[in-house]
Design a protein that fits this description.
By secondary structure, the protein is an alpha+beta fold. The chain is built from 5 helices and 11 strands. Strands 3-4-7-10-9-8 form a 6-stranded mixed beta sheet. It has a 3-stranded antiparallel beta sheet with strand order 5-6-11, with no helix packed on it. The chain has a two-stranded antiparallel sheet with strand order 1-2. The chain is elongated.
Length: 223
């Protein structure tokens, strides 16, 4: 019953979600020129919050305050959950097909198909780490306007379908501060935003071949 296959549907979704926040920039005041702020690109990586904080606070040859100051702001994200969405489930008897192309002409009798398409809701958690609260507010303002109420991305999740529209909805956010040691130490502002992506997981791909019934009748008449 079970066989190995891997369409990389989830992997492509993870990469596509992270790419949405790949160009976030914050600006810091320039002490040499107040009219020319310093832009700082915010890097993003796939990592859980606990691991990221531990990496920031682990001992270093430079002081804690200097290390945090130079490493922040940053973004990280993870998949929080994957659940089937029965409200979008298709008829199990239907399949997704892609016809072969020969000499720039589609051939209706052969191609590739996928028999299983399972709609899923993928929950992502995006974490924001900053030293200054103004950096957090800048990042929030660059994200929230694009999810009103959702943002649709178009992806190729398998070899049969080249364009699949995936709505991504923002469902919640949280802001907090973390202190380690006494109040003279540097602080870390940690915020999180939760998203739901309405995507799909697919079964194995296979080659199909259909024989045209009209051709069979013609061959029988000729015999």
């Amino acid at each position: 019953m079970f066989q190995y296959f891997y369409n990389k549907s989830l992997r492509k979704l993870v990469v596509g979600f992270g790419a949405l926040f790949n160009n976030i920039v914050v600006e810091h005041a320039n002490p040499d020129n107040v009219n020319s702020p310093i832009p700082i690109r915010v890097p993003i990586t796939y990592a859980p919050q606990e691991k990221f904080i531990r990496r920031l606070l682990e001992p270093s040859s430079i002081t804690d305050g200097t290390r945090i100051e130079t490493q922040l702001p940053k973004l990280s994200y993870i998949i929080s959950s994957i659940t089937p969405d029965n409200s979008r489930r298709r008829n199990k008897l239907s399949s997704i097909r892609k016809q072969n192309i020969v000499n720039n002409v589609c051939t209706p009798t052969s191609g590739e198909e996928i028999l299983e398409q399972v709609p899923i809701n993928v929950q992502f958690s995006l974490f924001i780490y900053t030293r200054h609260i103004d950096d957090t507010l800048q990042i929030f303002e660059q994200i929230i306007p694009y999810f009103n109420p959702d943002h649709i991305i178009t992806m190729s999740l398998n070899d049969v379908q080249s364009e699949i529209k995936i709505p991504i909805t923002m469902v919640g956010n949280n802001m907090s501060e973390r202190f380690d040691g006494d109040f003279s130490n540097r602080r870390i502002n940690i915020s999180s935003i939760t998203f739901i992506a309405k995507s799909y997981i697919y079964g194995p791909e296979r080659t199909y071949t259909n024989i045209d019934a009209n051709l069979i009748d013609i061959n029988l008449d000729l015999d």
